[in-house]
Amino acid sequence: MRDLRTPTTDLAFDEELRSALALEKYGRWATNLTKDQLLAVLWAIGEYGYRSESILACLDRHPEEFHPCDGFPRARLGLELLAAMAQGHHFTAGEVIERVQAVLKKWRAELGVPLE
How does DSSP classify residue 25? Predict the structure, then answer.
């Protein structure tokens, strides 16, 4: 097996997955990742995930420093999910969507924004 840390032009995903990613608002950026770039993404998730507890706690102490339109609850959830994945929890796309919708519902209620 080749060392995946060596730069390559080999794409990480097959055409079917690349086509699906290209349609996703939050997945487009990954459409043309090479194998070594995917390894870098996974490495970065692991680096964050194993050190996330204190970062998430800090964010929880300072939510008022974020403007409501910055999407703080969604960003925090994203970091929480990445940390959980690095610790071996695997989520389906549907599970992530449900978690995002729940966070949005709670956040909008706290802001007094009518639910759609």
Answer: T
For 39-89, the three-class secondary structure string (H helix, E strand, C coil) is: HHHHHHHHHHHCCHHHHHHHHHHCHHHCCHHHCHHHHHHHHHHHHHHHCCC
Q: Is the pTM of this model over 0.70?
A: yes
The answer to whether the CB of 38 falls within 8 A of the CB of 12 is: yes
- Identity (one letter) of the amino acid at 7? P
Ordered per-residue pLDDT tens for the chain, 116 residues:
667 677 889 999 999 999 999 999 999 999 999 999 999 999 999 999 888 999 999 988 988 888 766 688 888 999 999 999 999 999 999 999 999 999 988 888 887 877 66
Q: How far apart are the first and last CA of the chain?
A: 51
From the CB of residue 73, how many other CB atoms can be counted at a distance below 10 Å?
20
Residue 82, Cβ neighbours under 10 Å: how many? 16
Please give the helix or strand (H or E) that residue 109 lies within, else none. Answer: helix 93-111
Q: What SS3 state is found at 11?
A: strand
Residue type present at position 45: I
